[in-house]
Amino acid sequence: MTQRDRQPRYVGLRYKPLDLMKSCALLIAFFAVFAPTVVFAMRQQAVAVKGILLCGDKPAEGVQVKLWDEDDGPDPDDELDAMFTNADGSFDMKGSTRELTTIDPIFKVYHDCNDGVLPGQRKIKLRIPTQYIAAGGVAKKVFDVGILNLETVFPGEERDLL
Amino acid sequence: MSLKSLIILTIALIGLTEAFRYQSTAIKGKLLCGVNPAKNVRIKLWDEDSGPDPDDLLDSGYTDANGEFLLKGGTTELTNIDAIFKVYHDCDDGIKPGSRKVKFQIPNSYVFDAQEPKKVFDIGILNLETIFAKEERELIVSKRRRHLDLERFNSEDAESYFF
């Protein structure tokens, strides 16, 4: 037998177990540091809106109002809050959602003021300016739309048939 | 043309002029910028006509120190007038040149076949921070010229050019 035969051949993995463990640990450490930054880029944003709705000179009671976040692209829109106006036509809504980009809060009204026997409802959409969006789960300022007369034909009015 | 045709034509034309009727409308309300009254905001009341007939300026003015206003006017038209209320404002507009322009339509129930409107349309209290649909920008907003008769200038383009 030669010298070579007496020495044991290296059988098994090319990489020694300890090296493999060290590499794994390094990889895990890398993700542990950087993964949270991706998650934190999705930020919680809150908005609130209030106001009073009239139909002519009478309060518009029981009118459906909604607060939505409209998203561009593949992300579906989120309904943040919805309610029916009180007996005096007043409403108060708030909500929050976690988004990557700044939310686009939209206030929507579905009503039958001055709508006679037409099927479906008149639909109004108003955008809330960005200074009313707060970081976190609670809105700091409430956006006051004012006192709106729903007889007004608002720009961009649509009809909602369902 | 025979006399008979002439008589028929004359009667038809008289009939047509009778179909033109004076219609008037009025709008009042209050404008805010956030919680503060929107003072001195340029506002106009127009009759928008479709087709060849140019639009008519029915009234124009500015909101007062409380942000309140009242506009009233009328015109003679064949068809129903489309009363449009326009607001030119700088609420939430920073140092950007020109003004934000918002338009609202007054419902037909507030347009009257009379010299004086029977009811004044109350648009309510609007917060001009609101971003309304189809907002535009107006770079030159005409100033009030008290010595000029506004009715002479019926098209909005003419106003922008001359003032």
TrEMBL record, chain A:
<protein>
    <submittedName>
        <fullName>Transthyretin-like family protein</fullName>
    </submittedName>
</protein>
<dbReference type="Pfam" id="PF01060">
    <property type="entry name" value="TTR-52"/>
</dbReference>
<keyword id="KW-0964">Secreted</keyword>
<dbReference type="InterPro" id="IPR001534">
    <property type="entry name" value="Transthyretin-like"/>
</dbReference>
<dbReference type="GO" id="GO:0009986">
    <property type="term" value="C:cell surface"/>
</dbReference>
<dbReference type="GO" id="GO:0005576">
    <property type="term" value="C:extracellular region"/>
</dbReference>
<dbReference type="InterPro" id="IPR038479">
    <property type="entry name" value="Transthyretin-like_sf"/>
</dbReference>
<comment type="similarity">
    <text>Belongs to the nematode transthyretin-like family.</text>
</comment>
<keyword id="KW-0732">Signal</keyword>
UniProtKB/TrEMBL annotation, chain B:
<dbReference type="GO" id="GO:0009986">
    <property type="term" value="C:cell surface"/>
</dbReference>
<feature type="signal peptide">
    <location>
        <begin position="1"/>
        <end position="19"/>
    </location>
</feature>
<dbReference type="Pfam" id="PF01060">
    <property type="entry name" value="TTR-52"/>
</dbReference>
<dbReference type="InterPro" id="IPR038479">
    <property type="entry name" value="Transthyretin-like_sf"/>
</dbReference>
<protein>
    <submittedName>
        <fullName>Transthyretin-like family protein</fullName>
    </submittedName>
</protein>
<keyword id="KW-0964">Secreted</keyword>
<dbReference type="GO" id="GO:0005576">
    <property type="term" value="C:extracellular region"/>
</dbReference>
<keyword id="KW-0732">Signal</keyword>
<comment type="similarity">
    <text>Belongs to the nematode transthyretin-like family.</text>
</comment>
<dbReference type="InterPro" id="IPR001534">
    <property type="entry name" value="Transthyretin-like"/>
</dbReference>
